Amino acid sequence: MKNLKQFTLLSLLIIVLLSSCKKDTVEPESPISSPYANTYSGEFLQDYFSLQCDIVRTTPGFLPTLAARAYGYLGVTAYESVIHGIPNGESLEGQIQGFNPGSLPVPDLNNKYNWALSCNTACAQMMRHMFGSNLSADNLALIDAMEAANKTELSSSVSDEIITLSENFGKDLADAIYDISLTDSGNESYLDPFSQANPIVIPPDDYCWVATGPQPGPLTPYWGDNRSFISGIAANTQVGAHMEFSTDPSSDFYAAAMEVYNQVTVLNGPEEVTITEYWADDPFATCTPTGHTFNIIKQMCAEANATLEKTAVAFGMMGVAENDAFISCWKSKYDYVLIRPVSYIQQYIDASFTTVIGTPPFPAYTSGHSAEIGAGTKVMIALFAEANGDYTFTDLSQVQYGFTARSFDNLYDMAEECALSRYYGGIHYTFDNVKGLELGFGVGDAVVNDINWPTDIQ
């Protein structure tokens, strides 16, 4: 009898212990799981940036700096629209300027979302915002048509409730990011890109920039004061002054100008002219330099069959890089307001000198092309290439403009060719390009390393 009681008590004790352990291991109720962003194709998002290219090319006022801003905000919008569908993904809130904690809407993860539909709506809405009153009816119709076609494809077998929740989140997100953009000092600059309402005064000194064409004044002279995405990026990536200006034929500066003169008048051959024209990326004839760089990373995403996850991260990173590279470069340009080679050469070396392509309407130092491709290259390497830049790639982006595609085995070589194109064209001194690349690489390193981007993306 005693043994039976002991057995009964022991049995009860075991049951209590097992029940206690079971309670301790019960997980709290989890939010409803939405399919991750990497379960969707990134192709429709890549198409939005093709459309962005066409709209930049055909919208008045969207010269290189303003185009970079438009691409930048579309990139971060695409990223934020899917970040809640990326495992361990982190919003840009609290990481970039303007995106203060609580400034963006947050999806209710107790509900189910389709991140592709959220992204589709967010991108279309942001494009409508960014081109403002200069957005033509035809281009608005293209945005609307792309959004509708994507919705038809992406909403197959998706409930009306999920469609509504997803699209509402995307629209609210784009509206919130647009509200942030209104305070960065670049809003509506497309209406007065040469700041005629508030003209800058260029000193009359010999070293200073003078107009080289019919434009009313230098382009966006206050752009270096815009709020960047990365705090302090313009100050932290400056590369110092150019060599001392001089008109003395024995000086280093005169030699730098002679180098440009000899390259254009003696050394250039068909290959150098081709490189010059290939990377010219003139506004309103092409997508601008930023558009070219976005087309390159878009092609990389397409060739890698990148999911929506990787495509959105790539465009978010590139958007921050391009926007901030132009801000930092423009700070240099208007800190130094350096005379262009064509003006110096015509005044001090050969009055009949002409460049291979037209000289843009802003100061020389540092090179904008070099800065933006430098920043973009760092993003490409972080996502697709070896650390030393090794990556075999054929750039098809300029075929649409009648060029033969150009191939590279290293992305740093590609960046160097882009920079050199401005020297071959007679547009920049060598030091403009060398220091422009350095500035751009600095911006790109900050984008890659100073922001917590998702890792192990597909």
Q: Key features?
A:
2 strands; single chain; 2 domains; 54% helix; disordered N terminus; Vanadium-containing Chloroperoxidase, domain 1; 2% strand; 458 residues; 15 helices; mainly alpha; two-stranded antiparallel sheet; Vanadium-containing Chloroperoxidase, domain 2
Written overview of the protein:
The structure is a single chain. It is built from 15 helices and two strands. The chain has helices spanning 2-25, 43-58, 64-82, 115-130, 137-154, 160-181, 233-236, 252-267, 270-278, 288-303, 308-336, 341-348, 368-384, 411-424, 430-450, and strands at residues 390-395, 406-410. The termini are far apart. It folds into two domains: 37-181, Vanadium-containing Chloroperoxidase, domain 1; 204-450, Vanadium-containing Chloroperoxidase, domain 2 (Orthogonal Bundle), CATH 1.10.606.20. The chain is mainly α. The protein has a two-stranded antiparallel sheet. The radius of gyration is 27 Å and the shape is elongated.
Helix content: 40-55%
The top-level CATH class of the largest domain is: Mainly Alpha
Q: List low-confidence stretches.
A: 1-30
The structural class is mainly alpha
Order of strands across the biggest sheet?
1-2
